[in-house]
Amino acid sequence: MIHITAKQIHDIGNRFQWIYSGLAVLLCMLPALSIQAAERIRSDLTLDEIPFNGQRAYEYLKQICDIGPRPSGSQGMVQQQEMLKKHFTALGGSVVEQRFQTQHPLTGAPCGLANLIVTWHPDKKERILLATHYDTRPLPDEDPNPDRRQHGRFIGANDGASGVAIFMEMAHSMPKHSGRYGIDFVMLDGEEFIFGSSSRSQERGRYFLGSEWFAKEYVKNPPSHTYRWGVLLDMIGDSDLQIYKERNSIRWKETRPLVEEIWATAAKLGVKEFIHEAGYNVLDDHIRLRNVGKIPTCNIIDFDFPVSPNNRNWPNNHYWHTEADTPARCSALSLAKVGWVIQEWMKNTK
Description:
globular
């Protein structure tokens, strides 16, 4: 089910190109989404105008990346987990490690993984689940340099650290959260515990291990609470932020109102980077949360990282799964915009 290459889900015309990726299975309408720099949509907001501390979130992103690569089962992941547990606990969150095991994709040896769950306002039995993955791809297997694809370092500033950085900053305001719903953060392990290039059909491993485990446990051992909504954040630190509506999220009737609420919040705040158009069809952690866990979950993702027509394999995603995915390609302003929109939506959603 995970290892789909070019399997057609539905016919949406000859202008669509299929892409199988380590993050997702994508349907890319290239004429619509190969947006040139002059056509990029940007708001005029500055950091000082946004009541979400994007600069501090960016410092958290750099702190995460300073650990180095953080693939599942690695010492880097353990170091990150210890840092995050200390951070969220100090700010008043209740932190639980949801441990599980898988087999290492290369050796077959047992490998321990752990989702990290942070609970705020546990007395509220209706809750919102904010999700992101916090593992990094083991290698930069889409790097243009063949040697780096085999032996390079992938630190995943955008693809791995950006969602976590927003959670770390959001934690400062969570004790005073006044919305209707309680809030849980879940940082998912094993989103892409994969070795080998996706564009070269050389992959070994399984995707979305953490979200699958979380969803199965939610159904198998129901907690005392229920999740009204789930929101997945992925690759939202790009300094050239452009967030289209993910196609699964607007196709599912139960998540369509969720997407509309979030995009309406962005419009009200003047965050124009939440674009009112359909973008990619993405197979990501939200699929497991929705299909297995029955949690209505949308995906907020910017998969143009960045547009680069000169990149033959990924013209809309030049830095993805390369050594170029560094803090320098992310921005405090992008983190501030996304964090602000989500925080305001959580505060006001009914």
